[in-house]
Amino acid sequence: MRVVGNIRQIKQQRDTGNQEVELHLDKVEYITHRKDGKYYQPFDFVEELDTPLVITGDCLALAGAKHVKEGENSFVLFDKVADDYVLNENKQLSLTVAHDFDSDTTLVTSATYIVTVSNEEFTQLKSARNKARKQSKSRKGR
Asked: Would you tell me which of 30, 57, 88, 104 could form a disulfide with 18, CB atoms 3.0–4.6 Å apart?
């Protein structure tokens, strides 16, 4: 994971002027909720990406979390549809940042990108991932 630009300039309102900020993510966590007996339980899996997913700053806004520790940031994400930006409540991004005073740079120490999907999408994603893993293992064995 890496950040291009100043991630600290993103505020609680989405701003088209933040397009130069880029966040390159190397993994995505998918979550769904299924009924497990009497209660709904969260199920998840983390997909390691071969090519980084790039999220630009114009699609981000700080979430309104008031009790956040220093250096921890939560963002809401917007999808760009034609020329409009639409809030996507199924996507969440959390970053932990630290400031290096010697070099005057902001470092991202951890990033969590979560996408909530339906049970059907979750099953399809997991099966596609398992198929891809089996194919790569069979190619390595040859």
From this structure: 57
Query: What DSSP letter does each residue of 85-137 carry, written as one string?
Result: EEEEEEEEEEEEEEEETTTTEEEEEEEEEEEE--HHHHHHHHHHHHHHHHHHH
Distance CA 133, CA 142 (A): 15
Q: What is d(CA 66, CA 130) in angstroms, rounded to the nearest whole number?
A: 40
Look at residue 131 and tell me if it is in a domain: no
Pairing status of strand 22-36 against strand 72-81:
unpaired
User: 58 near 18, Cβ under 8 Å?
Assistant: yes
Q: Is residue 130 part of a domain?
A: no
pLDDT, block means (10 residues), the chain with 142 residues: 84 89 92 83 86 92 72 89 91 86 80 91 85 71 54
As for how many domains the chain has, the answer is 1
Q: Answer yes or no: is 126 within a domain.
A: no
